[in-house]
């Protein structure tokens, strides 16, 4: 990790805690213990043109920038679960593609304090509706930004790469 002296940000106490916990149980990383989640890369075209902007939101606990995502839902296909998360967490609906556009991994701290590695399959959502009343309204900040700015804000390296390289499929 970089120190403040060399221009890097110090690891947050929460990050250190997650890494320390995982270091005590490394078998989790190598035992097919990855949990599945589904995420939504929500985008819209700026002023009817070809330039796009994407939606980033803050997590409820740490306030860091993320994309809408969540656990599998009984009776729902992965792309449907991603679309539901986009609505519940950010109040956006639109045309979701059935095939994932990529995936990324991260460490998730569960409510019981345990840390589990997660794989997030990402689905493209072209936003057509922005609602004012949704489940997590007031619990998160939302921001529409360029792909590069979204990549700067999120922490996960693989998600940064997905954002920088994203090109909408179909129009």
From TrEMBL:
Identify the taxonomic lineage of the organism of origin.
Answer: Bacteria, Pseudomonadati, Pseudomonadota, Alphaproteobacteria, Hyphomicrobiales
Q: Name one Pfam family in it.
A: NUDIX
Molecular function (GO) terms listed?
A: metal ion binding; pyrophosphatase activity
The family database entries (Gene3D superfamilies) matched by this protein are listed as: Nucleoside Triphosphate Pyrophosphohydrolase
The entry's cellular-component GO terms read: cytoplasm
Task: Give the keywords, sorted.
Answer: Hydrolase, Magnesium, Metal-binding
Q: Which organism is it from?
A: Rhizobium multihospitium
Q: What is this protein called?
A: 8-oxo-dGTP pyrophosphatase MutT, NUDIX family
Q: Which PANTHER family match?
A: DIPHOSPHOINOSITOL POLYPHOSPHATE PHOSPHOHYDROLASE, DIPHOSPHOINOSITOL-POLYPHOSPHATE DIPHOSPHATASE
The cofactors required by this protein are: Mg(2+)
Q: Which residues form the Nudix hydrolase domain?
A: 33-167
């Amino acid at each position: 990790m970089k120190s403040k002296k060399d221009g890097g940000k110090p690891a947050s106490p929460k990050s250190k805690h997650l890494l320390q916990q995982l270091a005590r149980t490394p078998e989790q990383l190598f035992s097919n213990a990855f949990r599945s989640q589904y995420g939504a890369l929500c985008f819209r075209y700026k002023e009817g043109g070809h330039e796009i902007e994407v939606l980033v939101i803050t997590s409820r606990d740490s306030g860091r920038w993320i994309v809408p995502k969540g656990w599998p839902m009984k009776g729902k296909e992965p792309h449907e679960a991603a679309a539901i998360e986009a609505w519940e967490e950010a109040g956006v609906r639109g045309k979701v593609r059935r095939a994932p556009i990529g995936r990324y991994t991260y460490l998730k701290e569960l409510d019981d304090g345990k840390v589990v590695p997660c794989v997030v399959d990402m689905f493209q959502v072209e936003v057509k509706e922005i609602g004012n009343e949704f489940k997590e309204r007031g619990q998160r900040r939302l921001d529409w930004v360029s792909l590069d700015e979204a990549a700067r804000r999120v922490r996960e390296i693989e998600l940064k790469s997905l954002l920088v390289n994203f090109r909408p499929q179909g129009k």
